[in-house]
Design goal:
With about 150 residues, the chain is an all-alpha fold. Helices cover about 75% and strands about 0% of the residues. The longest helix has about 30 residues. It is elongated. About 25% of the residues are buried.
């Protein structure tokens, strides 16, 4: 990689880090605004901004080749899509999983953890993926494919 390419990549990584801080703050606020006690329809209406923020973070991670973050955001986005499609509130488990994702991203992105794919990333992926599978099964509509 040439010097100009290296400088560009380093600048892109710095912008990613700065933007991620703002996105994580926004995600925290959106999660705080999503209450468990709301009706499913009301809660479902608040999920789109959350989903869009996760989607944007996923794309940003892809641009800096942080495939670990991209994978985790894909899991979170799928959970949010399932909840929106079924007009259901987020379960306690899903809310906790999303909070755990935000905390993990805070550690690895903002505190410059050097190992992009680690045991914590794999463990969180398995947890979020299990929630995706449970969400799919719990809300499957008869005669409809989830693919």
């Amino acid at each position: 990689m040439g010097e100009s390419q290296q400088a560009f990549y380093e600048r892109l990584a710095q912008v990613f880090k700065q933007e991620t801080k703002g996105r994580l703050d926004t995600l925290r606020q959106l999660l705080n605004d999503t209450e468990l006690t709301e009706s499913p329809q009301t809660a479902s209406g608040k999920l789109l901004p959350l989903q869009l923020e996760v989607h944007s973070l996923k794309g940003a991670a892809r641009s800096v080749e942080r495939h670990d973050i991209e994978m985790l955001c894909q899991d979170a986005e799928t959970l949010l899509i399932h909840a929106r499609e079924r007009e259901s509130a987020l379960s306690t488990e899903v809310l906790l999983g999303l909070c755990e994702l935000i905390d993990y991203l805070d550690r690895v992105v903002l505190q410059s953890s050097s190992n992009p794919v680690d045991i914590a990333s794999n463990s969180l992926h398995l947890k979020l993926n299990a929630l995706v599978v449970a969400s799919s099964r719990a809300h499957a509509l008869p005669g409809k494919s989830l693919n």
